Amino acid sequence: MAKRIERVNKSVKEVLEDLVEGHREASIAGPGGAAKYLARTLEGQQSLPNAVKAVAYDLLAEARAQLQDWEGVEEALQGFLKNLPEMEPALGHGYRRALEATTALERGVQARTERADFHGALELCERAIALDLGAHWRAKRDSLEWAK
Q1: Could you tell me if 121 and 144 are in contact, meaning their C-beta atoms sit under 8 angstroms apart?
Q2: At the top level of its lineage, which domain of life is listed (predicted)?
Q3: 25: how many CB neighbours lie within 10 A of its CB?
Q4: Chain CA centroid to CA 74, Å
Q5: Could you give phi then psi for residue 29, rounded to 5 degrees?
Q6: What is the pTM of this model?
Q7: What is the DSSP letter of 2?
Q8: Is the distance from CB of 144 to CB of 108 less than 8 angstroms?
Q9: Rounded distance, CA 87 to CA 17, Å?
Q10: Domains, the chain, ranges and CATH?
Q11: Confidence (pLDDT) at 105
């Protein structure tokens, strides 16, 4: 009889480490390479934990911003926001550090400002303030107050 291949079950943190390492390697080719790697990963791995998807979308938003693909940034931002609630239970004590390292909201504000969606940019500032991501978000929000 043939020996059955055991399925390898990795923890969310291990899958996240693999994603970050793959992204680092793909980034050597520039933001286009990073974006391609992340898009393929998100499309090809349906079983990717949602917390890892949130980080992947965050990294994708950054790569798309570097390419000045503002619609791509918005798509990545939506994926990030959709999967964000899964980060805290999956990452536990590492959640706060991981959340503070994300740039999807920053890139979302940039993309929405570039596309003249100032109300949308203001909404993202409010969301970042609600997540307690730092005082600079209040300043950013205040600079967009005129858009109300």
Answers
A1: yes
A2: Bacteria
A3: 12
A4: 11
A5: -80, 5
A6: 0.91
A7: P
A8: no
A9: 14
A10: 12-147 (1.25.40.10)
A11: 98
Q: How many CB atoms lie within 10 A of CB 31?
A: 17
| Alpha carbon distance 84, 62 (integer Å) | 16
Separation between Cα atoms, residue 89 and residue 100, nearest integer Å = 16
Q: Smallest Cα–Cα separation from 31: which of 3, 2, 74, 61?
A: 61
Q: Nearest 5°: CA angle at 17, between 13 and 19?
A: 115
The torsion angle over the Cα atoms of residues 63, 44, 19 and 121, rounded to 10 degrees, is 40
The two tokens of residue 62 are 């950054």
CB 95: neighbour CB atoms within 10 A?
Answer: 14
Q: Is the pLDDT of residue 61 over 90?
A: yes
Residue 33: Cβ-neighbour burial (10 angstroms; 0-12, 13-18, 19+): middle
User: In which residue are the tokens 């998807």 written?
Assistant: 53
Residue 45, pLDDT score: 81
Cα 128 from Cα 144, distance rounded (Å): 14
* Residue written as token pair 């390697």: 25
Q: Identify the three-state secondary structure at position 7.
A: coil
> In degrees, to the nearest 5, what angle opens at C-alpha 137 toward C-alphas 134 and 142?
140
Q: What is the mean pLDDT of residues 96-120?
A: 97
